[in-house]
Structures are given as C-alpha cells and as structure tokens.
Amino acid sequence: MSIVEAFCDHLQRQNRFSQNTISSYLRDAKKYIEFLDNMKIKLENTSQATLIAYIISMQKSGKSNSTIARAIVSLKVFYDFLKTQKIIDIGKIEIEPPKLEKNPPQILTRDEVEKLLSCPKEDDIKGIRDKAMLELLYATGIKVSELINLNLDDINLEHGYIICKNKKRDRVIPIGSYAISAVEKYLRYSRPYLAKSKDEEALFLNFNGERMTRQGFWKIVKFYAQSAEIDKEITPHVLRHSFATHLIENGADVRAVQQMLGHADISTTQRYLQVANVKLKEVYQKTHPRA
C-alpha cells in the first residue's frame, strides 16, 4: 500500500471529513510527493524547510493564494498522519497561509443565466437531463456535491421543494416552476432510459446508469458555457453565487438566503450584499437626474 493510499484509509476511518475534503487532502498530498520525487528528497528526510521550499515553488508557478492556503492545511493533516505512523515528526507546522483577497463573488446577470439555461436541447435524453440539472442548481443555489447526491426521495415536485442532506443538518429548499417543469420532464422522458436498475436511488444519472459524478457535471457546465458564448468563467459555483445575489437584489432577507445556502456564518452570505449594492449604485448613476 502506498503512503497516499494509507493516508486515504486513515482519513476515511476518521469519520469526520467529507468526501470532498478527503479528495482535496489526497490531491495536495500527491502533488507534494511529486515535488519531493522531482527534488530527489525522501519523505522521511523532509523538514519545515522542505515545506517552505514547496510553498515557494507554488508561488513561483503562479498558484493562487487560495490554492496555497488549502495546500498548507492539507499538508498539516498529512504530517499529523505521518507522525501517528511513526514515519516522521517535523513538529508543529508554523507556516502561515497567505492572506486571501475577499473579492466580490463572480456572478451572471439574469440575461446571462437565461442564455445559459436555454442552451440544452429539450428534444433528446441528454439535453432534457442537463436542462433539469442546470435549472435545479440555479433554482436552489445548492453545491455541485449536493446536487449529484440528491436521491429520488429528496425531491417533492407536488409541493415544490428539495431536501438537501448533509452531516450537520438537513435543509428544505423551495424550487420554482421552471425547475419543477424541467425535473418533471427529465423524470418522464429521460431518466427511465438512463436507469439500468429499478433500485437506483440517485436522481441524476449518467449514460452508464450510475449517479452523475462531480467531474461529469463540471464538463456539462463547461460545454454549455461555451455554447452560450458568455465572456465569463462559468462554473457550478458561479450559478450558486448568482442565485444568492439575484434573491438579495429582489429583496430577499439575508437570513433566509443564509438558510437556503447552508452557511453557518451570516458574514459569508453578506458577501452577496456587496454585489447587490454595487448593482444598485450602477442603477442610481444611470437613472437619477442629479447623480
């Protein structure tokens, strides 16, 4: 068993990390080990100076502050594991992560959202499924991991809501008529052809009849982003940002948006107020006679 495989087994046995967090830790650990291999340094011979050299190499290669900060957290967990396995103990890692710039989140305008959501063809299995996924993502503001983890029992089209389940608490999120219509069409005309087993619980399936993967949905978003010819980087998280900002622009209560997004701290949700206020200022400047 490789050290990364052992690290993965260790993380999964901890039962306190989400699958996304585990994937992130493993990815960062692999990149660090690749760096050590290139430098011809054995893992058991590393030190805090080695870590600093790695961070400097990341900076020189143009990695963002957020990527570097995440790597530092991952490597702290990795070295904790190495200590428990009596492989190496380099002491408490004192490296401070770089400060993250708190830029306003990237969002799409309402016209851009309409353009994106109108791209999937609604006359074939794939287009109907993709339309339903995109509509539901924008209608609820849930994360990609939450979208692909939805089961058939988690959505109630009659009463217009989904149940988003996670380890901390479940969230009940309302969905609008467009998303309801798109998901109804998917369940009627697309999913029956994708499902290979009647026992499959996953709501959204790929063409192997299995639960849609995170990578698979990212490819879907990237494809339609190119088709829409919108001059912005569009990711699933941009739709989440757009959902929150558009709600607040239309007068939604920040705490209600916080609950729908599942933010533990309201200050995270208040970032969207900044975007909304900028929009209001632009409208004022354009429309007020004495602006």
Automatic annotation (TrEMBL):
Its main location: cytoplasm. CDD domains: INT_XerDC_C. Keywords: Cell cycle, Cell division, Chromosome partition, Cytoplasm, DNA integration, DNA recombination, DNA-binding. Residues 103-285 form the Tyr recombinase domain. InterPro entries: CB, DNA_brk_join_enz, Integrase-like_cat_sf, Integrase_catalytic, Integrase_recombinase_N, Integrase_SAM-like_N, Recomb_XerD, Tyrosine_recombinase_XerC/XerD. Pfam families: Phage_int_SAM_1, Phage_integrase. GO terms for cellular component: cytoplasm. It is found in: Cytoplasm. GO terms for biological process: cell division; chromosome segregation; DNA transposition. Transmembrane segments: none annotated. The active site is at residues 167, 237, 240, 263, 272. Residues 1-83 form the Core-binding (CB) domain. SUPFAM superfamilies: DNA breaking-rejoining enzymes (SSF56349), lambda integrase-like, N-terminal domain (SSF47823). Belongs to the 'phage' integrase family. XerD subfamily. Belongs to the 'phage' integrase family. XerC subfamily. PANTHER family: PHAGE INTEGRASE-RELATED (PTHR30349), TYROSINE RECOMBINASE XERC (PTHR30349:SF81). Forms a cyclic heterotetrameric complex composed of two molecules of XerC and two molecules of XerD. This is Tyrosine recombinase XerC. It comes from Caldicellulosiruptor owensensis (strain ATCC 700167 / DSM 13100 / OL). The gene is xerC.
